[in-house]
Write a structure and sequence with these properties.
mainly alpha; 8 helices
Length: 180
């Protein structure tokens, strides 16, 4: 939709820049993604509470929802770069999961996913090193989104497995009591 746009070299925000052809599609996508993220966090929060698991790593996923700000305030408006500043704090989620959920690791099994997601996200910090992959700013920026996607998907899988295992245990107990 944008002539000469290159996903490896151009900034993500250029897709929603003021007056660009995909501005409203891009902005709507960011806002919807941010709202759906809130519902995702609410679901994970409820599961954590029901299993007595610390919710802090899950709550840090809420920072991803700050992407709605740059969606509502398009580039090159001055607020565009300011309103999403808290966004990268979502990267603390896998780090906190590694630290806080150590005692729940046998139950959650998130260590591998947390490390992988965090490493992918950390590649996003390459944007602060212009001499590394100098013509690939867009690629470096997209590592943040890829890492978040991996981490969120991994969490969804692990927490769904946790709920399924919990339901299996309840059903076995129920069957055992019926047979007695």
């Amino acid at each position: 939709m944008i002539d000469d746009y290159n996903h490896f070299s151009n900034m993500v925000s250029e897709l929603g820049a003021l007056g660009s052809e995909p501005q409203y599609i891009f902005s709507t996508g960011l806002v919807i993604s941010s709202v759906l993220n809130v519902f995702f966090v609410i679901g994970l929060y409820r599961i954590c509470k029901s299993h007595n698991i610390n919710t802090t790593p899950v709550l840090f996923l809420l920072f991803f929802s700050f992407l709605a700000g740059p969606g509502v305030v398009p580039m090159p408006l001055r607020l565009h770069g300011i309103i999403g500043i808290p966004f990268p704090l979502f990267m603390l989620s896998p780090l906190l999961a590694l630290i806080i959920w150590q005692n729940n690791e046998s139950q959650l099994r998130v260590r591998a996913g947390a490390i992988t997601g965090l490493l992918i996200m950390l590649l996003g910090f390459l944007i602060f090193f212009p001499s590394i992959l100098p013509d690939h700013f867009g690629l470096k920026q997209r590592f943040l989104y890829l890492g978040w996607t991996f981490w969120s998907g991994y969490l969804a899988f692990r927490f769904l497995s946790l709920m399924e295992n919990n339901n299996d245990v309840k059903n076995k107990k129920k069957s055992a009591s019926v047979l007695s």
